[in-house]
Amino acid sequence: MNSLIWKIAINEWRRLWYARVPALLLLVLVALWTIAALAAHHHWQDHANTVAEVTARSQHDWQSQPDRHPHRVSHYGDFVAKPVHPLSVIEPGILDQSGHLVYLEAHRLNSANFNPATEATSLGRFPLITPAMIVQWWMPLFLIMIAYATVTADKNSGILAFMRGNGTPGWAIASGKWLALFLPLFFLLCLQTLLILACSWQSEQALLRLSILALSQVLYIAGWCLLVVAVSWFSKQLHGALLTLLLCWVCICIIFPRGLANLAQISYPTQPRTEAEYHAETKLQAIGDSHNPNDPHFAAFKESVLKKYHVSSVEDLPVNYQGILMQEGERLTTAVYREQQVLHDAQLAKQNESIRHWLWLTPALALQYIQMASAGNDLPHHQAFIRQAEDRRYKLIQYLNQVHTFKVIQRDDKNTRVSADFWKKAPRPPVHLSPMAISRSSILAGFLVLLGWIFIPGCLLFKVSHRL
Amino acid sequence: MKHELTLLLKQRSIIILLLLSLFLTGFSLYNGWQNINHINAQINQAKQEEILRKQDFLEHHSHHGTLDAGELGYYLFHNVYHSPGEWSFIALGNRLVIPYVQRIRLLGLQGQLYDGESHHPEYVMLGTFDYAFLLVFFAPLLCIALMHDLKASEQQAQRLLFLRSLMAEPKLFWGNRVLSRWLLVALTFVLPLLLLAATQTLSFSPLIRILAITALYTFFWSVLCAAISLRKRALNANFNAMLLASIWVMLCVVLPNLSQLWLHHHYPLQDGSQIALQHRQWVHGAWDLPKEDTLTPFYALYQQWKDSPPVTERFHWKWYYAFQHMADVKLESQVSAREQALNQRNQATGLLARFLPTVWVQRNLEDIAQSDVPDLLAQRQRITRFHTQLRLYLYPYLFEEKPFTTDAYMRLPVFED
């Protein structure tokens, strides 16, 4: 039976080859793919260079600080650039939209700034061609153009009836046709995977990320091949087959993904950043004012510090009270800012949830979620980066406040300069790309939809392949 | 023409397609409208809150009817707004990534100007479902669906020879056919728009421009489809469909992408992060320099305060704000170089738009909606002007050490858009 399926597949290839147009289209697809890969590589390199430059410059600036007062250093602050994974060449995801630089500073929660999307001209509103986009949009489109006629033509010319009359089972024809469409694309996908593996095998979690990426792409394309054969079998006329498939493509690839994202935004709109800052300040005011000597929170705090050191007044403290106060203030502001950040993340999660709810409508978006997750360019990775940066900020500032507490003499606080060695030794751990497990939920949801995407057209094909 | 329309509207598939298009146009307008409404509501709320916050600030920081101008410059934030225009819902453009409410204080402007907005980055990446998107991407597909088989469908139904023998003027006949289809396509876009404009009493001249753009663009695609499907031997509808779909891919995706690559290569833009790093270096470096190094160049720019009392103590607000401002001044050339690069990119896009109808439509709609690069630059300029206004208002209190009264506080400049 296997040889029968192969025979059908090989016959199909022969037919496609002699029709010329399909071979030509495949060639165009490969050309587009190459353009996309070159453009994306250029884009990625640009970005990686920026990140490297910023990191090096920030490091240099930090290390070459002179002797300073610690609080000056904590306002001088530190810059952290978002690390990029080499797989971003395949799927840049939100790289252009999310901002790639965070300024870490005492008692401030700064946003990730400088996203190229802000300064893009109208050309930036057109979808970007990336290798991932080629698989997600253009491969199905070219597949449709190449193969919409695969069964309908046989039907119209009577070959299908003839084959069935000879005892060839419908499912064998269906699998033969499917194989004929799927194998060349599968070959292309494998080629892509091998090429990327050759370029990026050293990067973090390269094998895991790449295999998940490749698996999702294969499932997605397999589903499209099933759909094309099924619709082609179902249609009575070539024209009907082509138009139905094109309509499916437009809905799945263009209308639904954008529509869902926009529906989510208008149902659960995000608050502006300033709103969050305003709320944080109101909350902080409610907690206490460290400048006000009569403030109950800070009066109690002072009492506890004096008790701890067994002294009766601030002047008698063996350490710098200003530094202790800074530590306490930083602790409080950080808690409030983190709370705000959690609220904001919850807001985004609500949007994501509403998209997930309707994700089964569009396997293209499901694929995109998996692709973005594997390239490390999706929302969870970005949020993890923000959290890491914030963590680094808090530790750094508290370290500086410690220096303030123990190395700055209280009596001559404002005029003291602390040795630059302290800045050189400051804890500034490099920010790493988060492991892929951070976007587990979107990967799972994506795969679930992709399995459905195999299952439904598969059932459809199985049912329809009994027809003549 | 009338017969053509009745013939068309008797086909169920065409009715479904047109209804789908009407629905999508309606949704795109609704979506844009909701987004702009949200932005407006947030701006209004922020304006209310700012009034409260300023009163609150006054209560907390005034001592016997006067305030410290230096403290005020540091602690008081001023809202600046990027308000949408009346027609902004037509194309949201880069409005989603530019903060619509931003907070500015008296410190160096370049450290504050580029603050990001807390949008959902995946949403921005997927793109907005606005009228511009629907027109640029979907209208051509509708035209292709309706007009790729003008001749071929007649051939398929074996009517072509018969029709040909009946036609007195084939050009008129096919012309009518194309025009009637074009009319229907254009109407599905125009009708929801007109309905919205009528119910919300929107201004007239942008409406006319949008209608003209819609009509021209759909007409362009109709003519293109007609040219391909009415060729001499255009009897294979599937070939026509594939050819037109390929043209669509080229015009809507491939060429704009290649243009953008060329644009970025030809007009390189310094990454904004360099400005941020440099700004920090200059602001914080000034602490370690002698005060004259800051104040002498500053007084050269602002001669009116040259003879103000000298700074003798360790810290004085006037020195502080002078070095904040001098960092901005030193960055001026870099900032204006970036601005120039952005302007050049914008102009080059305008040039490309003459050859790419898709880009032309997107650009013109964004121009009407005020959501393109020029509006971003204009907004940055407005913020800069406001910041300057604020500085000049507060400088006398800082440099001449005039007492900052509650009365002066009430007259603080407010950002107006």
Descriptive overview:
The complex is a heterodimer of chains A (468) and B (417). Chain A is mainly α and 468 residues long. In chain A, 69% of the residues lie in helices and 2% in strands. Chain A is built from 16 helices and three strands. The two termini of chain A are 20 Å apart. Chain B folds into two domains: 2-16 and 131-244, no CATH class; 29-128 and 267-410, no CATH class. Chain B contains 16 helices and four strands. Chain B has helices at 2-9, 12-61, 69-75, 121-126, 131-147, 150-156, 160-166, 170-199, 204-229, 237-266, 272-285, 291-301, 317-353, 357-369, 373-399, 406-410; strands at 66-67, 78-81, 101-104, 404-405. In chain B, the strands form two sheets. In chain B, strands 1-4 form a two-stranded antiparallel sheet. The two termini of chain B are 49 Å apart. The chains are: A mainly alpha (468), B mainly alpha (417). At the A-B interface, helix 2, helix 3, strand 3, helix 4 and helix 9 of A face helix 2, strand 3, helix 4, helix 5 and helix 10 of B.
Radius of gyration of chain B (Å): 29 Å
> What's the total helix number of chain A?
16
The tally of domains of chain B stands at 2
Order of helices and strands of chain A: HHHEEEHHHHHHHHHHHHH
Structural class of chain B: mainly alpha
Total E-strand runs of chain A: 3
Distance between the termini of chain A: 20 Å
Q: What about the largest sheet of chain A? A: 3 strands, antiparallel
Helicity range of chain B: over 70%
The largest pleated sheet of chain B is described as: 2 strands, antiparallel
Shape of chain A: elongated
**Terminal Cα span of chain B:** 49 Å
User: SS-based structural class of chain A?
Assistant: mainly alpha
Based on CA atoms alone, the radius of gyration of chain A comes out at: 30 Å
Q: Any idea how many domains of chain A?
A: 2
- How would you sum up the global shape of chain B? elongated
The DSSP helix count of chain B reads 16
The ordered string of helix (H) and strand (E) elements of chain B is HHEHEEHHHHHHHHHHHHEH
Mean pLDDT of chain B: 92
